[in-house]
């Protein structure tokens, strides 16, 4: 109903957004519904202010030490982003130059990752690493199916071999595309999938093995070369030729610059495909992933659709259709802006901060490092056994959150769920000064917790981690 020119509605508390009277205009509603369409229009200034104030309640991205995702780009990138906001990556007929730049980017990555021939490789941009992983997994599955059919064998019950510390997108892949996941458990002795005992998991129905270059839980590299050697041995004994997909969501944009001598990429013949996140250590705003296959033969042709859309005929291999093209242009901007030397400097700066932090935390008597951040700039630690029964890392995480710092605590994967760790991700823009401020707050909160004369309740503990 309308009273005195102001639209009102009888709803329960919490279902409307109240407008600050400072921003209300005569005759304009002073509150708007949260969960259904308003009856009338609002002034753009009013709608902007509401959304602006609501989003202000989000955390401070600079203090978020949980996320891998990039949260800062320079002013030129932001200008380019706004200029390209209307570009549709899938419409290659309308935006042929954006499509050309996409090709330049994945060919640059193919060269960076030592494809036998960058011109003979094939790749695509995606919304993120999750989509890229699923495309890599689908190609493995389809190649396996073709080989089985050609041999007159069953294509039922495909499986894929993974670390138990794999990112949740691989669980989704197995669920959505009906592939049995075979998890190799990590342990204190084998902190990552390293090829040990791999023959117990690989059989004639194995479509591939996933090697992670930067495990989400801890940031450690899985040794792709050792995994490949184990598969070489399996093939020699059984005849099974099993390929590797490298999930390089983070590490594929770190290793080429900080560990160029490390053999993990297409230099290893068994590596069929590699994915990475442009929006992680590719240094682009969220919404961009990449996947590259070593050659055209590694991507089955029947997975590529050729569609006529908006006046053009185009090939596409994606789970999404229309999607933003702006991030692809931003990636190309970063490749041109930084080059090899620039990426090396930026990634080295992040790793230096990670090593500085891990060294300081490793020296604290309360903690024990799981790893030190010398692979990707990510590391984890646990509470030293026997230090205290009054508090745990979940309590410390909550205390740090009160200071604005997001530092997750979570149990390790199956077989190690009795171990809880905390993890820090160092991204571009997290300086030594900010790291020093974090350490001051960390020490202050540890001192506070150590001074407790009784145990804290455990109801704030969380049962899992899926970041």
UniProtKB/TrEMBL annotation:
Question: Gene3D superfamilies per the record?
Answer: 3.90.1150.160, 4.10.280.50, Type I PLP-dependent aspartate aminotransferase-like (Major domain) (3.40.640.10)
Name this polypeptide is given: Glutamate decarboxylase
Q: Name one GO molecular function term.
A: pyridoxal phosphate binding
- Reactions listed under catalytic activity: L-glutamate + H(+) = 4-aminobutanoate + CO2
**Cleaved signal peptide residues:** none
Top-level lineage group? Bacteria
Q: Which Pfam families match?
A: Pyridoxal_deC
Organism per entry: Mycetocola reblochoni REB411
Keyword Glycoprotein: yes or no? no
Asked if the record carries the keyword Lyase, the reply is: yes
Q: What is its EC number?
A: 4.1.1.15
GO cellular component labels: cytosol
Q: What cofactor is needed?
A: pyridoxal 5'-phosphate
Q: Which InterPro entries does the protein's record reference?
A: Glutamate_decarboxylase, PyrdxlP-dep_de-COase, PyrdxlP-dep_Trfase, PyrdxlP-dep_Trfase_major
Residue positions of the PTM N6-(pyridoxal phosphate)lysine?
280
Enzyme class at the top of the EC tree: lyase
Give an example GO biological process: L-glutamate catabolic process
Question: What family does this chain come from, according to its entry?
Answer: Belongs to the group II decarboxylase family.
Record key words, sorted: Decarboxylase, Lyase, Pyridoxal phosphate
């Amino acid at each position: 109903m309308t009273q005195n020119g102001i639209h009102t509605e009888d709803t329960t508390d919490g279902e409307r957004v109240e407008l600050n009277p400072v921003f209300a205009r005569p005759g304009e509603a002073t509150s708007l519904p949260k969960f259904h369409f308003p009856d009338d229009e609002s002034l753009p200034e009013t709608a902007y202010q509401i959304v602006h104030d609501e989003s202000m309640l989000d955390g401070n991205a600079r203090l978020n030490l949980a996320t891998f995702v990039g949260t800062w780009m320079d002013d030129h990138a932001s200008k380019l982003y706004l200029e390209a906001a209307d570009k549709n990556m899938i419409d290659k007929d309308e935006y042929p130059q954006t499509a050309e730049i996409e090709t330049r980017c994945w060919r640059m990555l193919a060269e960076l990752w030592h494809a036998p021939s960058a011109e003979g490789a094939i790749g695509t941009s995606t919304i993120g690493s999750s989509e890229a992983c699923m495309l890599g997994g689908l190609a493995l599955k389809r190649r396996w199916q073709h080989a089985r059919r050609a041999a007159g064998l069953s294509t039922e019950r495909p499986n894929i071999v993974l670390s138990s510390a794999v990112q949740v997108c691989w669980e989704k892949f197995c669920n959505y595309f009906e592939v049995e996941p075979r998890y190799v458990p990590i342990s204190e002795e084998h902190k990552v999938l390293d090829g040990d005992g791999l023959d117990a998991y690989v059989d004639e129905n194995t479509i591939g093995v996933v090697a992670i270059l930067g495990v989400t839980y801890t940031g450690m590299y899985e040794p792709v070369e050792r995994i490949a050697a184990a598969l070489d041995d399996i093939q020699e004994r059984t005849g099974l030729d099993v390929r590797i997909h490298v999930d390089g969501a983070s590490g594929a944009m770190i290793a080429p610059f900080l560990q160029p001598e490390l053999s993990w990429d297409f230099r290893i013949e068994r590596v069929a495909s590699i994915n990475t996140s442009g929006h992680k250590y590719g240094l682009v705003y969220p919404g961009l992933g990449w996947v590259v296959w070593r050659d055209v033969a590694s991507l089955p042709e029947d997975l590529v659709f050729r569609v006529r859309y908006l006046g053009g005929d185009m090939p596409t291999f994606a789970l999404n259709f229309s999607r933003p093209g702006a991030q692809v242009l931003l990636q190309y901007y970063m490749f041109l802006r930084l080059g090899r030397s620039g990426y090396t400097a930026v990634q080295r700066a992040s790793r230096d901060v990670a090593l500085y932090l891990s060294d300081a935390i490793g020296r604290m008597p309360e903690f024990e490092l799981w790893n030190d951040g010398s692979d990707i700039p990510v590391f984890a630690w646990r509470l030293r056994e026997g230090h205290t029964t009054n508090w745990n890392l979940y309590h410390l995480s909550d205390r740090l959150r009160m200071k604005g710092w997001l530092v997750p605590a979570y149990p390790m994967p199956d077989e190690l769920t009795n171990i809880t760790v905390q993890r820090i991700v160092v991204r571009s823009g997290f300086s030594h000064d900010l790291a020093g401020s974090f350490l001051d707050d960390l020490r202050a909160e540890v001192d506070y917790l150590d001074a407790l004369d009784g145990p804290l309740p455990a109801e704030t503990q969380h049962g899992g981690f899926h970041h």
